[in-house]
Amino acid sequence: MPPSTIIHSARIVSNGSVTDDGWVRFDGDRLSARGVGRSWEARPGDEVVDAGGRHLTPGFIDIHVHGGGGAAFDDGADAIARALAMHRRHGTTRAVISLVTAPIEALERRVAEIAALTRRDDAVLGSHLEGPFLADSHRGAHDPALLHSPDQASIERLLEAADGTLTQVTLAPELPGALDATRSLVAAGSRVAVGHTGASADEARAAFDVGATILTHAFNGMRGIHHRAPGPVTAALATDGITLEIIDDGVHVHADVVNLAFTAAPGRIALVSDAMAAAGAADGPYDLGSLRVSVTDGVARLVDGGAIAGSTLTLGVAVRNAIAHGIPLATAVAAASIVPARAIGRGDELGALEVGYAADAVLLDDDLEAVRVWSAGDSVFAV
């Protein structure tokens, strides 16, 4: 059982607002009390942390991340633990384990392993299949030989292997069988994301109409916004309840377009890292699934063809980038916490510093760098 902890004299950033001189109490793995000023009272055995006026945010939640620290999530439990530890140092306390395109048999094994991790590790929020149900025309860094349309047999095999932990599936809605697959996945409790798609606005809207609720890394791996062919981004912006993922690393999406998205879809932008193994590690050669990647100056590209191959981003950097180009701090933090939590149906317990929520928090210094991180009440990183 984690120790009871009081963090006081903090600027609490939660649910899109900032509270000065605030405090929180963690009892076990839950936030049990919150207030302002000196209304807190320490009990014997409490750890008392003076935030010194620094920002205290919820733990960041990454719903689209493939690895980090030199490790790829596709490579099993030890690699997942290594990558999550790197992201934890930058404020990410919970993550959906994203897998790139692979044969169905390999994905069955991987989601089954992630299911076991989900049950024993609070940091793991299930799996995300980014492939193989993607359009070849917008495949990005996915092996074209392994892409195929969704079929009911494959969907059932993956759902059975995941045993209730298949959190998210990205698919291209224009593929044969995609709308039926969306219905089946949603009925089983998974979130469906539109992505890696050549879909028109109408085709994307059809997926939203049958239950898709996320747009995978908006603007990337899909048609752009054209004044006579608006594409899936405008369909997502115009549809209430659709969360748009944004990779704010200065490479995937221009700052002006990031600002446009935040303005057009308030409360529906989820910052994601889409990080691959090179995040928090050195430049050089890497594998992304079955494809070779070269990372130069922190930018990952396929060796064959040069397509962007994920990122080397962390959510801590994504939040700072968003703030640097004009997004209010509270909005940027919400996009890395409560918004992604809501996107996967966990917004009633994760992503906010509110009573009853998970005791996940990040203490940020004046440069908005993480100096201490708590996950489920445990101190898991400190400078």
Annotation field: number of helices: 10
- At the first level of CATH, the class of the largest domain is Alpha Beta
Silhouette: globular
Supply the helix-strand structural class.
alpha/beta
- Give the domain tally: 2
Unreliable residue runs: none
The second-level CATH architecture of the largest domain is: Alpha-Beta Barrel
Q: What's the CATH H-level superfamily name of the largest domain?
A: Metal-dependent hydrolases
Count of beta strands: 21
- Relative strand content: 25-35%
Largest sheet: 8 strands, mixed
Q: Return Rg in Å.
A: 20 Å
Determine the N-to-C terminus distance: 23 Å
What do we call the CATH topology of the largest domain? TIM Barrel
Mean pLDDT: 96
Question: How much helicity do the residues have?
Answer: 25-40%
